[in-house]
Amino acid sequence: CSAFPKCRYTESLEKNDLKIACPKCQEGKIVEKRTRRRQGYGGQAKIFYGCDQYPECDFALWDKPTGDKCPKCQSLLVETKRGQIKCSNKECNFTVEK
User: Fold this and answer.
1) pTM of this prediction?
2) 17: β partners
3) DSSP letters spanning 23-92
């Protein structure tokens, strides 16, 4: 609000929709979110990816989903912080070789 601090009106920022259907509820879309608490002294909020239907759906990932599915188990493929593409299912060991 341009009248801050007298005016305290706030509005949510635009959702960063990845245009990927939620694999858990099939109704929502995966969006980029930030944690509420900052990590450590002077730290930044961490980015994660979750369903926009929260709290009805609690699907979430720390790594960014690519939109592709794993050829072994059909879970979402994700890109790690190191740039590796792998399956989001912890029980599946599929990775994309570069």
Assistant:
1) 0.75
2) 31
3) TTTSSSEEEEEE-SS-SSTTPPPPEEEEETTTTT---EESSEEEEEE-TTT-PEEEE-TTS-EEES-TT-
In degrees to the nearest 10, what's the CA dihedral of 26, 31, 37, 43?
140
Per the structure block, which two tokens stand in for 21?
A: 């259907």
Q: Mention every residue, 6+ apart, whose C-beta is less than 8 A from residue 35.
A: 45, 46, 47, 48
Residue 53's Cβ-side half-sphere holds a number of Cα atoms within 13 Å equal to 14
CA dihedral defined by 13, 18, 95, 80, rounded to 10 degrees?
Answer: -10
pLDDT (tens place) for every residue of the chain, 98 residues total: 677 788 877 666 666 889 999 999 999 999 999 887 665 666 677 889 999 999 999 999 999 999 999 999 999 999 998 999 999 999 999 999 76
What gap in Å lies between CA 63 and CA 76, rounded to an integer?
11
